[in-house]
Design a protein that fits this description.
The chain is α/β, with parallel strands linked by helices. The chain has a single domain (9-192), classed as Spore Coat Polysaccharide Biosynthesis Protein SpsA, Chain A, CATH 3.90.550.10. The protein has helices spanning 37-45, 60-63, 81-91, 109-120, 147-155, 161-167, 188-192, and strands at 9-14, 31-32, 35-36, 52-55, 69-71, 96-101, 127-131, 134-143, 171-175. The longest helix has 12 residues, at 109-120. The N and C termini lie far apart (31 Å). The mean pLDDT is 89.
């Protein structure tokens, strides 16, 4: 059965980092089980939105097939994921932006549908995944109307997605601490397991 799109939701895949833990290699393009990590994410999220954004600061040609639009955060110093989130909020066409990292190939549509459904119940606040006491700010939903407040935090020098989202009143979507769907394969060791 074909997946139906999530109502009122743009999706942003973050692939704009330096890849320091990968020796400078672009994480989203590193292969896992014979496919680039970004391809695993794309196969899950593509049916869920008609506004799929991908934040990347290099390798645009390789990333182009995995999004409706590529965006760049315009920061030459690789300022971190909040730079990509900020740019995604400015580019999104729908009232909600779902943010996901490029290196979580075990994510599935039921989890993303739960994240979406839990977020839209309260249109005033972001929603972040939390495992036990560990917040996961790169698995979140942000209402676009908070873009101005996020931009103000950025201009004031805040670069922490967790801090900014909590300041904006983020609520938690609590998941089991060992939920395998949230595995970030962001080091060579994790990719080998």
């Amino acid at each position: 059965m074909a997946e139906s799109p999530l109502p009122s939701c743009s999706i942003l895949l973050l692939a704009g980092g330096r890849g320091l833990r990968m020796g400078g290699r672009d994480k989203g393009l590193i292969e896992w089980r014979n496919r680039p990590l970004i391809a695993w994410m794309h196969s899950v999220v593509r049916p869920l939105t008609d506004d799929l954004l991908l934040s990347c600061n290099r390798n645009q040609e390789q990333y182009a097939p995995y999004a409706d639009r590529l965006i760049s955060d315009g920061q030459s110093d690789y300022s971190g994921p909040l730079a990509g989130i900020r740019t995604g909020l400015a580019a999104a066409r729908h009232p909600w932006l779902m943010v996901l990292p490029c290196d979580a190939p075990l994510i599935d549509a039921p989890l993303l549908r739960l994240l979406h459904a839990s977020a839209i119940r309260d249109h005033d606040h972001p929603l972040m995944v939390r495992r036990s006491e560990q917040w996961e700010p790169l698995f979140c939903m942000i209402p676009l109307h908070l873009g101005g407040q996020l931009e103000a935090a950025w201009q004031a020098g805040d670069r922490s997605p967790l801090h900014v989202l909590l300041t904006l009143g983020a609520r938690a979507l609590d998941l089991p601490e060992n939920d395998p769907r949230l595995a970030n394969l962001n080091t060579p060791e994790l990719l080998q397991r």
